[in-house]
Structures are given as structure tokens and as C-alpha cells.
User: Fold this.
Amino acid sequence: MDSMNEECGVFGVYKNDDFIEAADAVFFGLYALQHRGQESAGIAISRNGRIDNYKDMGLVAEVFKGDRMEEFYGAKIAVGHVRYSTTGRSAVTNAQPLVVSYKSGTLALTHNGNLINASGLRTELEEDGAIFQTTIDTEVIANLIARQANEGIIESIIKTMDRLKGSYAMTVMTKDKLIGVRDPLGNRPLSLGRINESYILASETAAFDAIDAEYVRDIKPGEIIEISEAGIKSYMAKPSEKTALCIFEYVYFARPDSYIEGVSVYGAREKAGALLAKRFPVEADIVSGVPDSALPAAMGYAEESGIIYKKALAKNRYIGRTFIQPQQYMRERGVKIKLNALRRNVEGKRVILIDDSIVRGTTSKKIVEMLRNAGAKEVHMRISSPPVISPCYFGIDTASHEQLIGAKNSVEAIRKLIGADSLAYLSAEDLLETAKEGGLDFCSGCFTREYPMDVEHEMGKGNKLILEQNGQ
Ligand code: 5GP
Ligand code: MG
Assistant:
């Protein structure tokens, strides 16, 4: 079964002067978004009215090694994608950009997010004669857009948005346009940047920094941005009262040097750590964080509590995110390969250890054990988000219900399972406080089971694929 539940990174560039090479921009932009997906990478370009693309399994630097990028030099427009999927078969056919042809043209599409009504839409399209080449929901979107594209690409995207339920931040490229689309809830981030006269779209602002572009603004929930010869146009295609930006972007997913809706990801994490210190103080000798994603929260905790920050864990720099390993055995091995206790700093010490989240519990259990083996006297775990109690249906693979340690266990039971002296989690209210300046409301479904859409109802409509995927 192929995974339909995944987080990804999208990028797009529309070149308007010779200040940049579009191929370089998309390469380095994707490189900066690598943390959002390590499974496959792909780029599509438009040059002299023709669309070309290349995609493969692997990291950006592996897929586009040697002189592969040189073949893309001279592009006017480019879009790129990194894909992350953690369960099921991963195949290059499911990599993006998806390139589809329609009567009068070709379009390339990159998508971050997850449709909850993909299966129903797909069945409907298949009954109407459509043939699918992949198992990803993105192809449903591409199909819907291509069907009506002869009437005009923007009109077609607007009509398509009427049909889509779920999350999508997308870049769409035709031979002469770059288009950015963000779903009405604004569930996934998407920002607009500029370098000289050229425009950039990216999942995260850190990608702008990587290519010396400046941040212009976030694409609004429900907005379509069209960049072409005629300049830049905005359509408020699906304005929505209700917004639901994924709070997990701030907790774990995004880079700390990115800003989402103007809110620093690092800042939000640091605040979460400070709040943890206020709510759950404990006497200890050192505060430490699980590298890398929990370090800002750990700094926040240390500053607020006045307890000195010390590195308790050393990290192997040459290893990626451990979730990549689908088997539990490999996952456990993965933690040990990735992290090791710094005996010098923890021996005989009472340690407060901060992590950003506990999902399956594998990491925490291994780490507590490592610290004890290295002579730590006490280990107090503090988590800068609430227990993950429910799967994500909108694009982050937080594992199936059965695998979530927080779904069935009380905090005290989890404490016992991971072997810590004490354990406390930040509340959902406190967590949402940390990023509220952005002005959007949040989806915190994985922490609260309250989703911004009637997930069960939508998925009930023959959406068996996704239900199975989530292990329901
Ligand atoms: P656990 O071992 O409890 O399953 O995972 C918790 C650890 O995984 C935490 O250190 C956290 O930083 C990280 N984590 C949380 N969510 C995700 C995710 O969606 N993908 C990956 N790769 N890691 C995650
Ligand atoms: Mg971690």
C-alpha cells in the first residue's frame, strides 16, 4: 500500500531578469527544504515554451548530482518538490512534480498536504474514464485541473478548489505561468519571496534565505497567486472565516530559522519551553534538549528556570530523521545511531530533558535509558507539546492510532513506559499561545482529536485507502 499521508516541501521560481539562474534557485531552494522530505526529490522547468522534468528517489543532492542540473539551465520557470512518506511502499512513480498534459498544454504540479476526499474524487474520475498512474492524491488534483484547463488555468484551479477537501499548498507551472495555491484553511504554509525582479514561492521562508531572496508575504488561506509576463496577480479564490494552520509545523516540522505567518518558528519553540518551565518546574542540575528540533524549547526552559543548559546528548551529524525507518527494530537502532549520551555532562546529575513531542515513545525510552547508563541520577522529561493522541489526516504522518503511545496511555503510564523520574507535557492552550501572533487559528487535531473538517464523514465516503493507511 502506498502512503497517502505525507509531509512535503514545495518550491517555485519565476525568473524575470538575469540576476538568477532559475535552475540554481530551485536546486538550492529545495536543498533548504530537505528536512520536509527525504524520500524523493523532483524538479520541472519551463524553457522556450517546453516543460521538462526529472525526479527520483533520494535526497536533493543525490537526485541532482553531477551535471544533472546543467540540463535545466536557461529555464524561465521552475518548480520543485521534496517528498516525505514514512509508511508503505515508496516509489518513483509517486514522486513529484506531477507533469500532466491536457488538450492545449502541459502543467507541472507540486503539492504539500493531504486530501481527505481523494478516494471519493478518484473513484468519480475513474468512473468517468480517467486513468491514474500513481496512488497519490496529488494526481486527483492534477486531473481535475487539467480537465478544465482549456477554459483558463486560474478558472480551472478555482473550480478544482470547490471539490477539494483537505490540505494543499501547491505550486503549479504551465509553460508561461507560475501559480501558488493555498487551501482555505491555510493548513500548510506557503510564502512569497522576491529576488530582484524574480519571484519565488516556497513552503518555508528559510528557502528564501538560502538563495538571498527577500520574504514578501505569506500566501493567504484560500488565495491563488499568478505570476506571469503580466506581473503578479492575486485571487481570493476561496475566502474562509475559518482557518486551521498546522500547529505541528511550529512544534517540529518547520526549520527554526523559518517564519510562518510572520511568527518565528524558533521563537514559538522557545516560548513553549519557557511555558513548560513555568508550569512544570523541578529541581535539577542541568537542562538539556533532544537534538535538533527540541533545542530552542530547551533553551527557553533553561532561561526561564535559571538552570544551566548543558548538552546531554551528542548527535551524529550524518543521519537524518529517524522516522524514515519503517520497522520498529530499525527505529530503535536508529535512535542509538543518531544520539549518544554525553557522560561527561550527565554523570551524577539530575537532568531535565526537553523533547518537542512523543509520538511512539521509542525515542524517549531509548534516551532515558542512555542517560541512566551514562550515570544520570534523575531524568525529568518535559515535552513542549501535548500528548499526540490522534493521527493527522492533513499531511503529517504521525503514525497510526495503535502506534501512538499517547492514544491509550495516561501521562503517568507513559512516564513508567519510558522510565523517567517525572514527565510533563505542555497543554494545548499554552502551545497555541506560542504562535498566536500570526493571526490564524490552528489545527491541533493530533493533540485534541478536534479537526477542522468532518474527517470521519469525508473518509467514510469510500475513502478506504486513507483509512487503511491510518490504520483505523
Ligand atoms: P517517538 O520516538 O516518540 O516516536 O518520536 C518522537 C521523536 O520524533 C521526537 O524527538 C520528535 O522530535 C520526532 N518527531 C515528531 N514528529 C515527527 C515526524 O512527523 N517525523 C519525524 N521524522 N520525527 C518526528
Ligand atoms: Mg526529535
In short: The chain has a mean pLDDT of 92. The radius of gyration is 22 Å. The domain at 8-244 is CATH 3.60.20.10 (Glutamine Phosphoribosylpyrophosphate, subunit 1, domain 1). The first strand starts at residue 6 and ends at 14.
